[in-house]
């Protein structure tokens, strides 16, 4: 494989440029949409807020929040995807494909419809629980049989678990018809219509585990050479794997709690990161974070225009971009061992 | 060998080997099926005594329950039986040719193709075209999507692994389209579509039964005739080629049969989940691996699952009539998890 | 010498990589032929091409002097059986059910279990000493037993020609000898032609009537092991220095690699019979 950014200074410059692009995407995400807002207003809204100015209110109440959520969720999903890829050593692993999103969603929907849970803080914990349950099931199911955790088996196990949780969720929603319309948009994945308060409880968790993930880069690199070799090199592989698992569950679970099921970010972004910087996870993780944020911000901007005047759920947007990509990897990437 | 009976004509023109166990289990399951069918007819908002049900069916009744039995319940129970049988066998075939126990029509994209067809119909054509054409739209969706999956998997032949992965990808795409349509459509259409997606036998009538029946009448015997080739294909492509099987031709043929079975069932009943995944496993636990024996056993088990699920769906939350699919998942999922732990402990 | 299989000007490639180039080879009838060569030299590919598991880019394969691709695949299956490397049986399939599948090319959908089928399957069970395991699931057997079951399946195909791709990999030495003895008997008593790929040059020399060394996409040498296997040939094919001595029991060539190792006592080469 050819790596585009091969030397360390190039990787540093690349990361810096990516951050600039992220900033640009962030500003555009605030500026454009059904109501276009001049850049000067954005500046004013932040530093000289005027409650009477309609544009300022839009920025403060909706656009800014939306952009922040897209950034955080995009980064979280991308890191979760990169870590899953590392953990399963499988290019097709991503939180949505392996059923983790579906698990978190089912848990949240049942908490809402069956137990009338309403606090945002509880959503988060419930989402973690669901993500964890689904993740553990897929992992067990995928490692059954003679040849262990092969890519094909884990993907199928993920599909089966997704089917399981999706049909349960559907069942709950059919029973509770009123809830359907309101939950549906969230189910499909969306970063709009959320208040910043939804993000506040999960943000410390996300930031915390992201830092841990970045520091674990070296251990992850060793894990890539396989369990036995990593053990031989003196790594406590079980500990590493469990830590990775927890990080993935926190990242994916919080994303779902905030934005619903947004697919394929965790699949595409790590792939792009690896094309850029090679197989060194010390670089893959920060790159994934920035690229994931850029991708979701851009997808969100696009979602505003595709079916004007309606808005496309961003989860549908990412699936429309991501699924062909998944098929592409399935055709090319696995051709050798398929 | 005492476990088998060989059946042969004098000249060996016709000869079979039948496992005794399979024959017995088939007999027992058939009895169970009859029992459950009668129970399914008894249960409902108004309980009808099973003896009365049998009398009515055999024509010795006094016609009190004519409407409830013949117009409401009988079509629904028969439909459940046919749908379950079709989904079960479709899953059995897929698991055989893909050589993976997790393959099923609802996982590799056939069902989501049908869903897409049906939802497009509900959202765009429902006012203008008669609802009777909904099954056609669903079969069309299943067919087109499966064809695309097959085409994209082709690369000097189709390998099962590639087909599964691409199926999962396409399935995600189809689901995205469905979600998009649901979000942009009006509330009434959304609710209707959602009900369909979960899988429901609500309002099944005799006409539906007559429309679904021919598919099974043609495809089931065909599967039975081809059973011995599936047995060989389960040993892997290379062994199968070595034994003189045209692997690619048969793979396409089996895929077609599976798509038609699953597609027609889903067309009439919506996305009834887990039957195609679980019924084959249950029957394998009962009668082992011989494919010819597995076909009728799986068909009956699939039928029983859906009849029971539908019975619960109709009666558990009276007066609400819930979608059947919720309860097939409720029956299928625990079994699936049990399977997970059973294999784990070996 | 009569031959059953023949490759003429065979080119085979995986994607861009050419594996076999302009290869010509004849496989003698009623003999045991063993293909040897270094890892990745194309010997398995050659065997698989003979068995139509691998398509040739150009060139022809002849089976009994007929073009292989002109014969229907079912007809080929009646004349040629192939056991690929590392086959996996579905979980729970019993030994008898697996061996039965070998009758596939001889059956039709009405005629699935004739008296002849039964006789042949029972015979295959007996020859491989698997009769008592007939109703056990294949996945519960040991590696050596499993390999015998697969061989029994190819025997049930009742072909004059049997191709095997590394039938002894992953088996310990005792089981390797057991499998090769079985194949030797099949050839010796029933006159079947056996063609196989083996990794162990010494075992190849012991059992093969005809040995074929593949190197650099082509046949490097072929003939009786005692004529073909020399220190020069081993050097050329395997890139390894060695001394060839006579096997003290069978007199077939035995390859002793030079390399390094402990020396306990030097032995005069005449004592062990240098070739």
Structure, described:
The complex is a heterotrimer of chains A (338), B (346) and C (275). Chain A is mainly alpha-helical and 338 residues long. Chain A is built from 14 helices and no strands. Chain A has helices at residues 8-31, 39-47, 54-88, 100-115, 120-142, 151-175, 177-187, 196-215, 217-223, 227-232, 237-259, 265-277, 281-306, 314-332. In chain A, helix 2 packs across helix 3 (54-88), helix 3 (54-88) packs across helix 13 and helix 9 (217-223) packs across helix 13 (281-306). Chain A is globular, with a radius of gyration of 20 Å. By secondary structure, chain B is an all-alpha fold. Chain B has a single domain (18-345), classed as ABC transporter involved in vitamin B12 uptake, BtuC. The model of chain B has no long low-confidence stretch (mean pLDDT 86). Chain C starts with a strand and ends with a helix. With 275 residues, chain C is α/β, with parallel strands linked by helices. Chain C has a single domain (3-229), classed as P-loop containing nucleotide triphosphate hydrolases (Rossmann fold). Chains in contact: A-B, B-C.
What does this entry show, briefly?
In chain A, 76% of the residues lie in helices and 0% in strands. With 338 residues, chain A is mainly α.
Number of E-type strands of chain C: 12
- The H/E string of chain A reads HHHHHHHHHHHHHH
Write down the overall mean pLDDT of chain A. 84
Compute the average pLDDT of chain C: 90
Main beta sheet strand tally, sense and closure of chain A: none
- The helical percent of chain A reads over 70%
CATH class of chain A: Mainly Alpha
Helicity range of chain C: 25-40%
Strand content of chain C: 25-35%
Distance between the termini of chain C: 26 Å
Q: Using the coordinates shown, work out and report the CATH topology of chain C.
A: Rossmann fold
Whole-Å distance between the termini of chain A? Answer: 19 Å
How does CATH name the architecture of chain C?
Answer: 3-Layer(aba) Sandwich
Most residues in contact: chain pair: A-B, 50 and 55 residues
Please tag this protein with its features.
heterotrimer, A: 338 residues, mainly alpha, ABC transporter involved in vitamin B12 uptake, BtuC, 14 helices, 76% helix, C: 275 residues, alpha/beta, Rossmann fold, 6-stranded mixed β-sheet, 4-stranded antiparallel β-sheet, 10 helices
